Automatic annotation (TrEMBL):
Sequence intervals crossing the membrane: 37-56, 68-89, 124-145, 151-173, 180-200, 234-257
Keyword Transmembrane helix attached: yes
Record flagged with keyword Zinc: no
Protein name stated in the entry: ABC-2 type transporter
Sample GO molecular function, one term: ABC-type transporter activity
Amino acid sequence: MTAATASVPVRPARPPRSALRLGLLHAKYQFLEAIRIPIAVIGTMMFPTLAMVFFVVPNQAVAQNPVFATAAVAQLGMFSIMATCLFTYGTGVAEDRDRPFDPYMRTLPAGASAQMIGRVANGLIFAALGLLPLVLAGWILTAATLSWSRLLVSVLTILALAIPFTMLGLGIGYSLPSKAAIAVVQVVLFPLAFAGGLFLPPQMFPGWLDAFSQALPSRAGRDLLVQVTSGEPAYGLALPVLLGWTVLFAVFVVWAYRRDEGRRFR
């Protein structure tokens, strides 16, 4: 007597997805989650535009001068990038860590790289979206101009400038609870913006504040963006200062992520 055995087809193992592909997938669902609350996105996007309408447009000496107006748009654009990155990640990551789904995500075999890629990509997208109403207001209401040859370089510069502030936001988000992260983001954002010349041109600063300002990432980013958009030259150490802060913020993110993982999962 022989027993017939049914053969079960065995599916071939699915090849593992790359960290880049998982990161883009992570970015997609983070973006969809963020736009489910439109007022939060709109509020972040509109503040620099309102500052343009209330403080730059009424000042005709600035608004009707192409170089000054373009520099003013670039300054507020730099503030928009900083605010988007710090609020999106400084508070967003801290709030995510309080949710039950985040510990589950951290146990998946994808590792930290996919989440980091997704968060950085999402920050770049919202930084770009935040500039749209500001650029439109500057184009319609002031004499700001930007040639086509400078447009592509300006977009690439903006994306590059978002990276260090995304890193800073991530570091704050992974190192603090959500209530503390909100306060720290506000404390960090506005002094950096003022001392970096994003509300007043650095030419109006006293000598000591101008010297201190040149060591800040906000001033370095502001001057590089103004140079690309209006042609007004940045100070000589702007790029090295920004690169130095980028490396420092990247180390801060790695330290904060590993510290958080060590506390919660070991």
